[in-house]
Write a structure and sequence with these properties.
By secondary structure, this protein is of the alpha/beta class. It has one domain. Helices cover 25% and strands 15% of the residues. It has 6 helices and 8 strands; from the N terminus they run H-H-E-H-H-E-H-E-E-H-E-E-E-E.
Length: 208
């Protein structure tokens, strides 16, 4: 009988066997030294698609520490938003591509300064990289304070992590053509005042 490479793999090598059904956190920790995917003393940070936020309750339920460096003041916690800013270690929201993640980290390190770092829309100051925030700034001074605090929280979270989970949600990304800046969503969804000719869609490729 012919054998294939999958026949000798344990259940932990298969999503359907180890996660979709009969999930046990102990399987992730491993039974022998050197096998562990996680250690109970690890500090976990996640970024990416909604899946990266959906796993957080499971991480905490199993006694692992999920790092949180940026949380909303209590007066803002009931305000609606739909891009997941409250679901991650810092309020960066959903990050769908590796380009977007790198861009965020370089901004946090001070290595990348966007040419256009804010949009003035309807007397509010909108962050192009976090356009769905429930509490946008009302002045440039307030925006500068919020952005500085956010990037500091991102840097603190990323540098304190011993385990970093990144899930890819989409292959597409929206860029401002002449600035090569990556956005969470197409800017024209926010306002028609942002010219569509400045925005381009790029599809990530898998290179073997």
């Amino acid at each position: 009988m012919n054998k294939n490479p999958y026949q000798d793999q344990s259940n932990s090598a298969f999503w359907s066997r180890s996660v979709s059904r009969d999930f046990l956190a102990e399987d992730l920790l491993g039974s022998e030294k050197g096998e562990s995917l996680f250690d109970l003393n690890d500090k976990v940070v996640s970024a990416g698609s909604c899946f990266a936020s959906n796993l957080i309750p499971w991480i905490e339920k199993e006694g692992l520490e999920y790092v949180r460096t940026e949380e909303l003041p209590i007066q803002f916690q009931q305000m609606p938003e739909n891009l997941g800013y409250r679901n991650f270690s810092a309020a960066y929201g959903n990050i769908y591509t590796a380009k977007h993640l790198r861009q965020l980290y370089e901004q946090a390190l001070g290595l990348r300064k966007p040419i256009e770092d804010r949009w003035h829309i309807d007397e509010l100051v909108i962050d192009p990289f976090r356009p769905g925030l429930a509490y946008p700034a009302e002045s440039d001074a307030e925006f500068d304070l919020l952005k500085s605090a956010h990037l500091s929280a991102v840097r603190k979270a990323f540098h304190s992590a011993t385990v970093f989970v990144f899930t890819l949600g989409l292959t597409e990304a929206w860029f401002q053509s002449w600035m090569v800046q990556c956005f969470q969503l197409v800017p024209e969804q926010l306002t028609v005042s942002l010219m569509s000719q400045n925005t381009s869609l790029r599809i990530s490729q898998y290179l073997r």
